[in-house]
Amino acid sequence: MQLPSSPSFSLSGKRALVTGASSGIGLACAVALARAGAHVTVAARRLERLSDLVSSLHAEGLSAEALELDVSDIKATATAIAQAADFDILVNSAGLAKHTPALDTSVEDFDQVMDINLRGAYFLTREVAKGLVTAKKPGSLINISSQMAHVGGVDRAVYCASKFAVEGFTKAMAIEWGPQGIRVNTVCPTFVNTELAQQTLSNPERKAWIEEKIKLGRIADVQDIMAAVMYLASDAASMVTGSSLLVDGGWTAD
To answer: What is the pLDDT of residues 45-86, one digit of tens each?
Structure first.
């Protein structure tokens, strides 16, 4: 009997760009990709924190560099991506939340969320794909979305709108660039134990409500998201595009 070969999760020889990498999910994903063998460019607005991350990765013998980047600045982002070497992998983890009742949403809050979560994600994904198409290379482009891209949430109308939109353009781009071997997917986490989530998780009533909604009965850890991103970035997911990988503990199963 001839047994099938096992898929590879190695990212050796690949170049990855991770935005929002100065903390939380983005930082964790950068670590995961570097440990899988990729050269990782970590990008965010907080250069000092990026420098600390790069130093820590170098201390493990891993390959990384920092890039100060504000994805809401579309022109500067396009210039930075054009000047960099082609990326095989993108993890767009830059994001912003402004949670208010829909009746209280300000135009300023709406625009700030959309500038990063939607416009920033859209044009960053486009710029990385442009480099791959020009170089005639395949690639894996991953947008960190949310379970809130599939359900509604109290005080989260703007955030949900931004993430539902990310799901839409991800599917359209996957169709458009599939013939070039470029895969485009989202990872949709539930609430994750990060610094950003503590404002919600520190409220006992909100935390109890969240744990009740998550069928596995626990808040996610960054390692749960690292595993999903490693899979989608690797050749093990070579037949996966236009998909949403829900890492939500069963929240959206109802």
So the answer is: 999 999 999 999 999 999 999 999 999 999 999 999 999 989
Give me the catalytic one of 159, 177, 191, 231. 159
Is residue 41 within 8 Å of residue 17, measured between CB atoms? yes
Mean pLDDT of the chain: 96
Q: Is the CB of residue 57 less than 8 Å from the CB of residue 80?
A: no
Model confidence pLDDT, tens digit, residues 202-244: 889 889 989 999 999 999 999 999 999 999 999 999 999 999 9
159 is catalytic: yes
Q: Can you tell me which residue has the tokens 């013998």?
A: 61
The CATH architecture that domain 15-192+221-242 belongs to is 3-Layer(aba) Sandwich (3.40)
pTM: 0.95
What whole-number distance in Å separates Cα of residue 101 and Cα of residue 137? 44
- Indicate the residue type of 132: L
Which helix (H) or strand (E) is 24 found in, with range? helix 24-35
Rounded to 10 deg, the angle between the 107-114 and 157-177 helix axes is 30
Give the Cβ contact number of residue 75 at 10 Å: 8
CB 225 within 8 A of CB 21: no
| Cα end-to-end span (Å), the chain | 43
